[in-house]
């Protein structure tokens, strides 16, 4: 049934694109303009992030007085998460609401468009680079070259790893098999002795349940609960330190360019509002979730300063090794220069 639904959605989307009926702007003047967008996110409606995505839709609809209509496909229901960007760029969808790190196979620069692993200490530093450190321009040099427009970020905050085995520090990573997103994370954890396995969000629960993996790099505490991971995994790390991915909204370039300016502004401001609300609600929810998990018997491990130093050494080595293209080197240097100016790193 699900496969049939996916095929139907894909077929209808392709047909609509071919006939020019895919999302876009009906009028470019300031009165009666209409924009219809088909967007996919990897989050399910059961997770906090999925609920926040729906709130973004509601905000955009209200701010545009209904001129912007969004059809959201949750839980990667049209194509796999890593295929969302291409599906938008080629017309199956209009916008991608997953994350840049899924596209590192195109260019390693996309790693630094989503997650400077171990670099920023909190979401607010990362938003500061985007808003005040030239981030929009730097990102769109990369996105525009791939027929997409970067619109905005939403950052839940530092993530926590889940594990069915002991997870108290670096020593526990030896031979640890875990779900990893694509990108520099695989390099970092391989250096530390772990065995990363790249897989889609929707495959994590079953892989944990059947023992294919020992743990997962999926999301923060609250979203991990939404994914059901702590029904199986008895250990986690909190506070998070290893990763703080920024999920993006990116739209196909011709769709973006065809929107009236006030629709572009609404979508950008809507993403900035989503970012603030998402980061702050996750800070609150994670504290509540940590208390609940402790009461449930899940062990929350705070790694020592010594273990964190070992991790960060592997991170900095991996950044340099991963930045193999001119675009990736430029984007990495933009982040690092900003962090140095903030006094957040040497």
Question: What does this molecule look like?
Answer:
The chain has 346 residues and is α/β, with parallel strands linked by helices. The protein has two domains: 2-20 and 35-158 and 244-283, Bacterial extracellular solute-binding protein, family 7 (D-Maltodextrin-Binding Protein, domain 2, 3-Layer(aba) Sandwich), CATH 3.40.190.170; 162-243 and 303-342, D-Maltodextrin-Binding Protein, domain 2 (3-Layer(aba) Sandwich), CATH 3.40.190. 45% of the residues lie in helices and 14% in strands. It has helices at residues 2-18, 48-63, 84-89, 123-132, 135-144, 184-191, 204-209, 221-226, 253-257, 261-296, 305-322, 326-342; strands at residues 35-41, 68-73, 95-97, 148-154, 162-163, 177-180, 195-198, 215-216, 235-237, 247-252, 299-301. It has a six-stranded mixed β-sheet, with helices on both faces. Helix 2 (48-63) packs antiparallel against helix 10, helix 5 packs antiparallel against helix 12 (326-342) and helix 6 (184-191) packs across helix 11. The termini are far apart. The model is unreliable at 1-6, 12-23 and 25-30 (pLDDT under 50).
């Amino acid at each position: 049934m699900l496969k049939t639904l996916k095929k139907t959605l894909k077929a209808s989307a392709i047909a609509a694109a071919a006939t020019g009926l895919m999302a876009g702007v009906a009028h470019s003047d300031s009165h009666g303009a209409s924009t219809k967008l088909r967007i996919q996110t990897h989050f399910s409606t059961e997770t906090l992030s999925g609920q926040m995505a729906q709130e973004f839709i509601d905000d955009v609809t209200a701010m545009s007085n209904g001129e912007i209509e969004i059809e959201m496909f949750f839980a990667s229901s049209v194509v796999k998460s890593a295929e969302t960007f291409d599906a938008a760029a080629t017309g199956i969808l209009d916008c991608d609401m997953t994350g840049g790190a899924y596209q590192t196979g195109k260019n390693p620069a996309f790693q630094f468009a989503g997650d400077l692993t171990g670099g920023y200490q909190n979401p607010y530093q990362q938003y500061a680079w985007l808003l005040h450190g030239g981030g929009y321009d730097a990102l769109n040099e990369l996105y525009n070259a791939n027929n997409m427009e970067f619109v905005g970020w939403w950052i839940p905050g530092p993530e926590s790893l889940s594990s069915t085995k002991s997870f108290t520090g670096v020593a526990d990573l030896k031979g640890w098999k875990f779900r990893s997103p694509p990108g520099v994370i695989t390099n970092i954890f391989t250096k530390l002795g772990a065995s990363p396995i790249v897989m889609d969000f929707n495959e994590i629960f079953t892989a944990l349940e059947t023992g294919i993996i020992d743990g997962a790099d999926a999301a923060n505490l609250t979203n991990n609960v939404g994914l059901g991971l702590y029904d199986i995994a008895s250990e986690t790390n909190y506070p998070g330190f290893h990763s703080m991915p920024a999920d993006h909204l990116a739209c196909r370039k011709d769709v973006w360019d065809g929107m009236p300016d006030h629709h572009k502004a609404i979508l950008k401001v809507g993403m900035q509002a989503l970012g603030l609300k998402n980061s702050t609600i996750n800070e609150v929810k994670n504290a509540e979730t940590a208390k609940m998990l402790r009461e449930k018997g899940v062990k929350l491990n705070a790694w020592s300063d010594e273990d964190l130093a070992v991790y960060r050494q592997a991170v900095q080595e991996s950044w340099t090794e991963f930045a193999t293209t001119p675009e990736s080197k430029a984007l990495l240097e933009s982040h690092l220069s900003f962090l140095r100016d903030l006094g957040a790193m040497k």
